[in-house]
Amino acid sequence: MANWIFQGNPKQFDVDTYLQENTIVTWGIRQEQYKDEFQLGDKVFIWRSDGGNRNSGGVVAIGEIASEPFIENEQDSIEVKINEIRLTPESGMLLRNELKEISDTMNLQIFKMSQMTNYRLTDGEFNRLYQYWQSPQMIKEQLELTTIEKYLYAFQEVADAWFKDNAKHIQVGYHFFERFKQREHLQQMEWGDVQEIGAHINAFRMALTKKRALGNMNAPIEKYRKSFEYLFYGQEPVEWLWQTKNVPFGH
């Protein structure tokens, strides 16, 4: 079994009226690579594009595959039984512009290739969309989150696996920074100690990024020592670093 999004464009036909007047609708199969994958009972979200009416598009119905693929008017087609329609935000449709802002739906294929008709959803994508379809108010809650909260919300689904896969890296990094932040160490560290940071921060896992950031010194080592000591133990406002020219970056 698979799950799908079928998109319709109001510029090409009256999507709303078609859904309102028919329990069984016929939809074109434009992405022929999927023709042999459709099965009776597959769940389908009907997605109405903006059709020139900005921010009006999104998920307006849910149904299920009700036939085998067939040819109609020289076009591969399939029937969908419509189970529920919601044509307006007030009735609970899922707006495209809002789904695009939510971290766990912003990467749907329909946002990357918007001109297609048929989109296959992963189980995770379908479950998230269906959850929002059942409780549209959750979208409003997601939109009110800060940027970091949105990404943490999305991360929670893979967090257990990520921590399991990276447990050793995290442990080694923790012990490194526990030693690195010791005041005595900061006051005596050399450039090689600074470069070693690159082995313990994800952002520096790319060799080119690591080389650009930590390849060469931009200032005497004493400025690095004072900067890191301030970051861990300083009480003065951050402007103090610039006023005293104790920050090595950018000088």
From TrEMBL:
InterPro entries registered for this protein in UniProt: EVE_domain, PUA-like_sf
Domain EVE: 3-119
Protein name: EVE domain-containing protein
Source organism of this protein record: Lysinibacillus antri
